[in-house]
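new request in #modeling-help
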Amino acid sequence: MSPLIVLFLLNIIAFSCSAEPCVVSDFDDVENATKQCSDIVFDNLYVPAGITLKLNLTKGASVKFKGNTTFGFTNWLGPLVTINGTGLNVQGDEGAIFDGQGQLYWDGLGGPGSEKPQFFTIEAFHSTFSNIKVINTPIDCVQVTNAINVTLSDWIIDDSAGDPGVAPEGQEGINTDGFDVWNSTDVVIKDSVVYNQDDCVAVRCGANVYVANMYCHGTHGLSISVGFSNTSVPLNTLSNVTFADSILVNSDNGIHIKTHRDGGYGSITNVTYRNITISTIHKYGIEIQENYPDINGEPRNNVPIVDLKMVNITGSVEKNAVPVFIRCADGGCADWKWSGVDITGQKSDQCNFNPEGYTC
Ligand SMILES: *[C@@H]1O[C@H](CO)[C@@H](O)[C@H](O)[C@H]1NC(C)=O
Ligand SMILES: *[C@@H]1O[C@H](CO)[C@@H](O)[C@H](O)[C@H]1NC(C)=O
Ligand SMILES: *[C@@H]1O[C@H](CO)[C@@H](O)[C@H](O)[C@H]1NC(C)=O
Ligand SMILES: *[C@@H]1O[C@H](CO)[C@@H](O)[C@H](O)[C@H]1NC(C)=O
Ligand SMILES: *[C@@H]1O[C@H](CO)[C@@H](O)[C@H](O)[C@H]1NC(C)=O
Ligand SMILES: *[C@@H]1O[C@H](CO)[C@@H](O)[C@H](O)[C@H]1NC(C)=O
Ligand SMILES: *[C@@H]1O[C@H](CO)[C@@H](O)[C@H](O)[C@H]1NC(C)=O
Ligand SMILES: *[C@@H]1O[C@H](CO)[C@@H](O)[C@H](O)[C@H]1NC(C)=O
Ligand SMILES: *[C@@H]1O[C@H](CO)[C@@H](O)[C@H](O)[C@H]1NC(C)=O
Ligand SMILES: *[C@@H]1O[C@H](CO)[C@@H](O)[C@H](O)[C@H]1NC(C)=O
Ligand SMILES: *[C@@H]1O[C@H](CO)[C@@H](O)[C@H](O)[C@H]1NC(C)=O
């Protein structure tokens, strides 16, 4: 046998033992492992600076991360990790962390500042991602994109080291979204904790998204943000979304629904927020605006919001904050049924549209 063939066979043997997982602790072994193994353990993996950890996995693969997964520092846009595949089961081991070393990037400017790598891009089908702890994300953490039937549960995203008053002045984390959902259907995000400085969860387009049992601290809220595309109606269309049973603390907003007035046409239909408790809210308890990004701008009805239910939304906002703010475009809002919305504050609500069941 030629030495090359021997090498090849050894390589297959090294990565094909079906009873034992392939244990990978050297970045150079990642690509072969993802091709050859259906059960992979990444053990204290170090990913060199400026390179994406690309996990294009085989159907049904199980992946576990152990120890501290770290990334070399360089100013770039990332992502640090992409995960693709069908039927995946991706988990963090007990005590495992992903450390994005955000402190090396944070400049108090977020996206417009120095280049910062996005963390995870998940483009998967029929897959679960659970028990994952991430600290210090340079900028936004998880992008679920073009996915179908994925569940993310038991995540902890902790960017609290980037909070104002915690990070040195001018070195705060900004635009550190927890979870963003883009063009995906049948997505569940649940039982998770986010400490950050932008949206806790932001759902942008797709259908059948269920977000529940979240604890969000320091965030910009449980958000819907539609109208990113100037040309595609599907990419500006969102339906069947539920946010339930969650707590927001010390945040700019509790609930934030924004349609982009400079975007193309689309719609938001059948959204429910249920059993959400808010406290120490700095700006708006519930903020619904069809004039994003300019809160004072003329609203536009390119993305109407139809069938919006709010059930049992309770808590309080700080003294300079507005409990409920609604700025609809002419004909931009219809069929809103609210009940049990009770947010206390010192300022009055500001609404140009009255949901059924709620007096602004
Ligand atoms: C990956 O596998 C190929 C053949 O399957 C082999 O030639 C190559 O050396 C392996 N790479 C590493 C880093 O082991
Ligand atoms: C990713 O994996 C899938 C399924 O294993 C395979 O068909 C595809 O060619 C891979 N793509 C890349 C870019 O490696
Ligand atoms: C993870 O590893 C990096 C690089 O060695 C280190 O700087 C960081 O402190 C570690 N994080 C934790 C939480 O142990
Ligand atoms: C994996 O996902 C990334 C981004 O989510 C995408 O750009 C890429 O085409 C996908 N690759 C495969 C092999 O599916
Ligand atoms: C959704 O994914 C799960 C695995 O996470 C799988 O068991 C289930 O059958 C999938 N549902 C559908 C409708 O494909
Ligand atoms: C949206 O996601 C679906 C499902 O993965 C995919 O087939 C479609 O190409 C995506 N659309 C765009 C515009 O990326
Ligand atoms: C959409 O068009 C507006 C106005 O022409 C422009 O400011 C904006 O950058 C465009 N957005 C995208 C995503 O192309
Ligand atoms: C929304 O949910 C309804 C009821 O379950 C379902 O019939 C419809 O297909 C869903 N919409 C989309 C776009 O998936
Ligand atoms: C609205 O979406 C929910 C899931 O969030 C679904 O159960 C319900 O059937 C949908 N209603 C309609 C009218 O599509
Ligand atoms: C409301 O949400 C809280 C978590 O914030 C949960 O403990 C409680 O069980 C939920 N109540 C109902 C009626 O689902
Ligand atoms: C709404 O709140 C009422 C009164 O606290 C409670 O009885 C009910 O279970 C709640 N419903 C939901 C869906 O959380």
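bot summary: Helices lie at 3-16, 30-36.
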